[in-house]
Amino acid sequence: MAESPYWNPKTETLAREDLRRLQGLRLAEVVARAWQGSPFHRRLFEQAGVKPEQVRGLDDLERLPFTTREAWMECQRRTPPFGDMLALPLEHAVRYHTTSGTTGRTPLRVLDGRVDWKWIAECWCYGFHGFGIRAHDRVFFAFSYGTFIGFWGAHYGCEKMGCLVLPSGNMTTEGRVALIDDMQATVVCATPTYALRLAQEARERGVDLVNGSVKRLILSGEPAGSIPATKRLIEGQWGAKAADTAGMTEIGTIMMFECEQQPGGTHIIEDQVIEEVIDPDSGRSVGYGEQGERVVTSFGRGMIPLVRYRTRDLVVKVPHTRCTCGRTFDLYDGGILGRVDDMLLVRGTNVYPRAVEAIVREHAAVDEFQIHLTTVDGIRDEIAVRCEVRPGHEAQWPKVRERLAADLAAAIEGLSIPVVEAARGSLPRFELKAKRVKDERVVKGAGR
Ligand SMILES: [Zn+2]
């Protein structure tokens, strides 16, 4: 019998109406469980005037209130360390993780039980298997194995599939490159930014990645994994195929993945989560093809059930027919497009960092970059893109700079964005979520 391209052939190819029915049953179950065990959720449901017995199928989803990060944070603050969110006693927990807290806020504290952790590993198998990774693969993890959940779930997913896991928690970038080479890793898991950093290190060490053992990269942690130019850059430097995945500490660690067909979007693991897309202002759901905020209900977390969690991620959902792989799971066109709160207001113009990245990455002469915002004369916002030139591309740089500035001006109307050269090695590199916006304005978004 030919090997299946699906990890779970039954659910990944379910007819849409059967998938809806399955989601409805699982929704009713998670709502009942949340009501029963978690005072936080019961309070939210009571405030919204909804009882578990009123939730019988997917049509009842919109009766349920949203869960927000703010409310979760508030309950955690009031009764530290976990708030009254947990639906099972603390003794069930086997894992402690926190959100990465990139914006300087207190991180959310998350617990998982044994069953929850199995579920997380299972979800990763959909993604790994779906991208062609099998038991014979040797999978290298370029991440620090700290309290940030990152690739932890992916590690366990690989073990479940029977892959050889190569952890590199405490290693330097140099050490990691050597390990990939020594062990002839076939798959590398990293953030898009760090995949580029590893490639740079390999070049400096004379390690030929393009003709090396790595055939696939699994990207996560930043939206850039779905930006075509960034992906092309990574694929070119590694001589390998790269697939985007995305998750969220609050919900589990993978909710969507790219299949081998790579139709320009990520399949949502719809038998394990419900993903809605809403207008972030009105809270009303939007249709296929319209950009909005993703809202997630996850079925598999026993300790922390989540119902209609507002992620603040921006997405555009498209029907499963966009892809030819045969899965009936819908997709997010271009993966996660950014964050609702990411938008920068500069002299009255909206600037999305992801849009800037998509343009900058079209230019191979740029090694690393940063969007720099300052206040000039105490009132006026100034924006510039600072670029480190890739070694060997110095001669082309003046021309590239000109073209890049023109491309940025064409894409972001009403704002001219100077492109300036930054000294080599002066811009930060990141292992986890890259922060390429340096906002040093006195008042953010003021002064037209
Ligand atoms: Zn597909």
Outline:
By secondary structure, the chain is α/β, with parallel strands linked by helices. It has 11 helices and 20 strands.
Structure description:
- This protein is of the alpha/beta class and 448 residues long.
- Helix content is 29%, strand content 25%.
- It contains eleven helices and 20 strands.
- The protein has helices at residues 9-12, 16-37, 39-47, 69-78, 114-130, 152-161, 173-182, 192-205, 228-238, 353-360, 397-411; strands at 93-98, 109-113, 138-141, 164-167, 187-190, 216-219, 241-248, 252-257, 265-268, 273-278, 291-298, 306-318, 331-333, 338-339, 344-346, 349-351, 366-376, 380-389, 419-422, 437-439.
- The strands form four sheets. Strands 3, 4, 5, 6, 7, 8, 9, 10, 11, 12, 13 and 14 form a twelve-stranded mixed sheet that branches. Strands 19-18-17-20 form a four-stranded mixed sheet.
- A hairpin with a 3-residue loop joins strand 7 (241-248) and strand 8 (252-257).
- 43% of the residues are buried.
- The model has no long low-confidence stretch (mean pLDDT 92).
- The protein binds zinc ion (ZN).
